[in-house]
Amino acid sequence: MLSWVFAAVICVLSAGAGCYVGYKHYSEHYRAADTALGEEHIVDYPVADALQLTQDALRGDGILFEVLSDSSIVTSWRPADLNTPTRWFSLIIPQTPRYRYEIQAVPEPGQRGKIIVNVRTEGIPDEELASYKASNRFALFKEIDELASQFPPKSRLPSSGGVNFTLLPNEDLRALARRVTGNPDNWHQIAADNGLKSPTDVTPFENIWVRNSLLKPLPTP
Question: What burial letters (b/e) apply to 91-129, b meaning 16+ CB within 10 Å?
């Protein structure tokens, strides 16, 4: 009789341990933040402009966000639109499935920027994670490209090694070359540096970059 009671106690303890292990494994999956899923998108703008476009796209979708000290962006947690499987332990440790986006931009060659968007989730089954990517959820990258098409074109002028001049009224590249370099034929090099095709391929008051080697020497005191 005593041996039968002892065996029964062992069985109960073993079953309880199994339930605890299963509970611990399941609850950890739903309580801890899942590994973030990342995706990337390159825009023809430097990092600062890429982040500004991203913020504008988030605002357009009504997504609240915070800009951190390192200029990265973190959106507020949003509730997931799915039903988490009900388990008896959910009454003890309630869990609301949710997700957010962690965004940063890094420089790319040619004054371009790469936007990196990670979606971080809690309580969302693995098979559902991909549907919460920003490109799937909000077509974020498409919206960024649409905003970029309306964004003022970035300056193609070099940032060093020369001087920016504003064209005077009725002044073309030949006249500008004569004024700032002393040789009107220098318009060829000026046009090449600024991506222009002819001396008249300009607009009034346009900024034109002229390399230092072409400029008139400064008068000696």
Answer: eeeeeebbbbbbbbbeebeeebbebebbbbbbbbeeeeb
